[in-house]
UniProtKB/TrEMBL annotation:
This is Fructose-1,6-bisphosphatase class 1. It catalyses: beta-D-fructose 1,6-bisphosphate + H2O = beta-D-fructose 6-phosphate + phosphate. Its EC number is 3.1.3.11. It comes from the Bacteria. One of its GO terms (cellular component) is cytosol. HAMAP family: FBPase_class1 (MF_01855). Mg(2+) 1 binds at residues 95, 117, 119. Pathway: Carbohydrate biosynthesis. SUPFAM superfamilies: Carbohydrate phosphatase (SSF56655). Binds 2 magnesium ions per subunit. One of its GO terms (molecular function) is fructose 1,6-bisphosphate 1-phosphatase activity.
Length: 339
């Protein structure tokens, strides 16, 4: 059978009533922007894009309090520029920008809101390890003339599409429009994404976990107990040995989990209690939660379903437990039993 491009896949989904032309166009534009980011990432040192952004002799710090990489800024610009003129969006919000940005007056405004982490895992860029772009699409509430931050504050279950693009040995786009999670691989010669896995499934059980264990002393009690039971292996209460992986690029860790199962955890920790963990609800946790749930997995903050959390701030942080359904339920049980 001939290969199925992203364009053909989306047109067939439109015929099936799963997507409308505006959302289809939006996804195509995001995919096109990801191809440009993939080219920039792929050039590495030859493109002069590695390292931090330096302004007035010091590293430039973003709204998250983190040093910005040149590729963070470039990827953000690529996504904003690509999405400005299509007429399908009302506004964009990004990990790299303090506030959401409405579509410029020069262009027509559409019905959707786009959120993105333009280059997730960017601490890995300079060491040539996989990074990625994460995105989430919401509907702009009806009757809103000029969308602002408050219009983005919708629970994750309201997402109409979510995905990521991983820039690894191959570039892959993993997408959901609420009818399964599907993977496309970039054919670099043709310049198009080709469907390579329809209906990804996360195995319900796992023997693999992903966590930055260097933070262990800062975790709360049920988290300490959960991980020490995993580490106890066959001899412990879990009765089996677990393996551990941590890439420190959420996109790459989640991609592994969508491919072969596992649990990914970035828990709440005491280091910075006000921040509730490191990862951001709106453009990291929610889109990954939708992708994982659509593949038969689960996503929790340790107590409740991530996609049921009502956000109060655009850059809000949240503890994240996602992946194999039974293991996420197990980690959640440790927390609920403790409360
Ligand atoms: P970023 O969006 O600034 O790149 O931060 C998010 C990343 C995730 O991709 C990854 O899971 C996590 O930070 C790694 O954190 P740590 O450095 O604590 O291992
Ligand atoms: Mg990120």
């Amino acid at each position: 059978m001939s290969s199925i491009s992203l364009t053909r896949f989306l047109i067939e989904e439109e015929r099936a009533g799963h997507v409308n032309p505006d959302l289809r166009l939006l996804i195509e534009v995001v995919a096109r922007a990801c191809k440009s980011i993939s080219v920039a990432v792929g050039k590495g040192a030859l493109g002069g894009v590695l390292g931090d952004v330096i302004a007035s002799g010091a590293a430039s710090i973003n709204v998250q309090g983190e040093a910005q990489k040149k590729l963070d800024v470039l990827s953000n610009e690529i996504l904003l520029e690509a999405n400005a003129w299509g007429g399908h969006l009302a506004a964009c919000a990004s990990e790299e920008m303090d506030h959401s940005q409405p579509i410029p007056d020069a262009f027509p405004r559409g019905a959707y809101l786009l959120l993105f982490d333009p280059l997730d895992g960017s601490s890995n860029i300079d060491v040539n390890v996989s990074v990625g772009t994460i995105f989430s699409v919401l509907r702009c509430p009806e009757g809103v003339e000029q969308a602002g931050d408050e219009h983005f504050l919708q629970p994750g279950r309201e997402q109409v599409a979510a995905g990521y693009c991983i820039y690894g040995p191959s570039t892959m786009l993993v997408l959901t429009i609420g009818h399964g999670t599907h993977a496309f691989t970039l054919d670099r010669e043709q310049g198009s994404f080709v469907l390579t896995q329809k209906g990804m499934r996360v195995p319900e059980e796992t023997k693999e976990f992903a966590i930055n264990v260097s933070n262990q002393r800062h975790w709360e009690a049920p988290m300490q107990r959960y991980v020490s039971d995993l580490l106890a292996g066959k001899e412990g209460p879990r009765g089996k040995d677990f393996n551990m992986r941590w890439i420190a690029s959420m996109v790459a860790d989640v991609h592994r989990i969508l491919t072969r199962g596992g649990i990914f955890i970035y828990p709440w920790d005491r280091k910075d209690p006000g921040k509730a963990g490191k990862l951001r609800l709106m453009y990291e946790a929610n889109p990954m939660a939708m992708l994982v749930e659509q593949a038969g997995g689960a996503a929790s903050n340790g107590r409740e379903r991530i996609m049921d959390i009502a956000p109060s701030q655009l850059h809000q942080r949240v503890p994240v437990f996602l992946g194999s359904k039974k293991e996420v339920a197990e980690a959640t049980r440790y927390h609920l039993e403790h409360d």
